[in-house]
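Purpose: get a first structural picture of the assembly so the mutagenesis plan has something to point at.
Setup: two entries, given in the order below. No constraints added.
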Amino acid sequence: MPESSKNVLLQASHLVKEFPVEGGKKGSAVHAVSDVSLTLFEGETLALVGESGCGKSTLGRLLIRLLPPTSGTVTYDGTDILALKERDFAPYRRQMQIIFQDPYASLDPRMNVTQIIEEPLRANGVGKTKAERQEKVFELMDLVGIPREYAKRYPHQFSGGQRQRIGIARAIALNPKLVVCDEPVSALDVSIQAQVLNLLRDLQQQKHMTYLFISHDLSVVRHISDRVAVMFLGKICEVGPTKDLYEHPLHPYTKFLLASVPNPDPTKRDENEVLLTGDIPSPVNPPSGCRFRTRCPFADAKCAEEEPAMQEVGERRFACHHPLT
Amino acid sequence: MSEANTLEIRHLRTVFHTRKGDLAAVNDVSLTVPKGKIVGIVGESGCGKSMTAMSVMQLVRKPGEIESGQILFRGEDLLQKTPGEMQKIRGDRISMIFQEPMTSLNPVYTVGHQVEEALRIHEHLSKEELHRRAVEIFEAVGIPEAEERLKSYPHQLSGGLRQRVMIGMAMICKPDLLIADEPTTALDVTIEAQILALMKKLRDENGTSILLITHNMGVVAKMCDFVYVMYAGRVMEQAEVFELFRNVQHPYTAGLLQSIPRIDHVVDRLYTIPGVVPNLLHLPAGCGFCTRCRYAQDRCYEELPELREIAPGHFIRCFSTNQELSGKEESHA
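Result (C-alpha cells, whole complex):
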C-alpha cells in the first residue's frame, strides 16, 4: 500500500526528551530522545527497534503522553494532544493503551483478574452495573484465552504467558485505537512467545488496532511488523517497510544489527563475520555529528562534524552520510 | 573413560525436597563434553539446564541434593571429592560464568582488585606482576584502555564489559572446562555477537571445553558442536549440531524450532506448542512432554520412552520419530 493512500493516525515532530542528571554537572542531561519525527499509519504495526538505552521505550511513552517531552509535538487524529489540558485529553487517553514487558511487575498482586481487567472500565464509566462489567470482563477473558473460571484468581497463580494475556485484556478493554507494546514477549519462553504473538496479531485484525511494537528482538520484529524504525542513541537512523529494510538495509547500523542476530541454522555460520566494535556511547555525552560514528567502520571526518539529515527515498528514510547501496 | 572427554555426566539425578514433595530438577541426565568442544544444553525455563550445570560445580543448595549418578571430570568422579578438593577444582580446572555479571562481581571493589584477588589465589606473584597479569587478561578479552578500566567499579562498566571481565577471570588458570550459563542473555545483540566470538576465540587458543547453557536456538546453531535438548528435567534429544538442525526428530524440539520467528523468512502464523511447561511435582507417569504433544497416545502417558539412537550419535526420547508422526498425520488428513 503506498503511503499516500494510508491514513495518518499519529504524527510526532521533533520530539526531544532530556532527563536531568541528578548530582551531575549543572545542565548535564541524558539525551534519551533527540529530535525524533515519526508517523504512524492507521492499522499498521510499526516496530521500534534498537539496543538498550537507545530511547525506544521513552519514545513510546512520549507518543501516548505518558511522559511529557522537553520539546516537540504529537498530533493524534489531527489534534495536538500535548497542548490539551488533562481533562480534555481523557477521551484520547482511552484510545491509547500500553502493554508492558514484565508481566510480573505490571499487574497489582492484590487484585484478582476481574478487578484488574475491570479497572479501566470503571475508571471510564463503561458498564453501569457490576453484572454488566463482569460480562464485559468475561468477554475480554475469552478473547485473550483465559478460562472464565479463573476470574477470581490472583496474578501469582498464573504463568508468565497467562499474565501477559491478562495485561493484554486490560489494555484492550476500552477498544483502543493505538496500543504501545513495549517488549511484550521478551520475558517469555519461546513456546509461549509464539502463542502471545499470534494472539496480538489476531486481536489487531479483529479490532483494527494500530501497534507501536517496541522490541530488541529482530526476529520477532520481522514477523510482526509492517514497518520498522531503527533507533540508535536517541535518534532514528532508518525507517522503512519491514521486508525492504531487512533485505536491503541502508544505514550501516541496521546492517550490523541484523547481522548480529544468531540464526537458528548452523549452515549459516559465518566464521569471518564482521562485528561491530566497542560499546554504545553514553547518552549524557553523545558523539558530535553522527551518533553512530564511533562504532561505524565507514565513518570519516564529515561524520564527526556534521549531523546527517534524514533523507527520503520512496518509502524509506535514513540519516547517514555513507548509506549502503 | 578416555582422555578425549573433559566431562562425562552419567545418570545424574538432582532432587529438590520441597514441602509439597520431591521434584527431580535433573532426572537421569547423561552428557559428554569432548575435549575442546562446545556442547550446548538448550531448553525453556525450568527444564533443568542450569541445575545440571550447578550440579557439576556442586553448587546445589538445600533443599536441593544430588541424589545419584556420576560426574566424571577428566576421568575422576567429582561426587567423590571432598569440599576442599572441589574448592580447588572450581576456578582452577572448571570455571563458570553467569547470565548477570553484575551479581557475580563485588560492587564495592574495583574490577582490577577482583581480578588480582583471583590471580593471588591461584598464583604466587609480586604486586607488580599481579598488575601486569591483570592488564594482560583484560587485553586478552578485548577490554579497551585496560590500565584505566582496572580502576573501574563494576557499576561503571557496561553489561558487555562486565561479562568480558567475568570471562577474563574465568580464564585466568586456563581451565579445562568453562561452564557458561546464559552468558549473553542479558546483552544486546551486537554485544552478544562480540562475547560469543570471544568465547570461540578462547576455545580455539586454549583448547578449553565449553558447556554452554542457553534457551536460544540461534546461539546453539552458531556456537555448539553437540546439543542436548532438555525438557522437564530430562534429555529429550541429543545430536551433533548439524545433524540436529537438519534432521530434528523429537516432537518437542521440532515444535520449539518451528515456533521461533526467523529473521530470514516470514510465516503468516507462528506454530505454537499448546499449553505450558508442566509442574515438576505433578509430572505424568510417562513422557514429560505428553500433555503438550500433538501426537501423544495412551502409551505416552503411561510409559517413559528410553533414549534411543535413531542415527549415528543422534538420540531421542520418544517412541516414534517426528518424521513418522507428522507423516502419519498427513496421510490421515
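Residues 125 and 148 of chain A are 23 Å apart (CA to CA).
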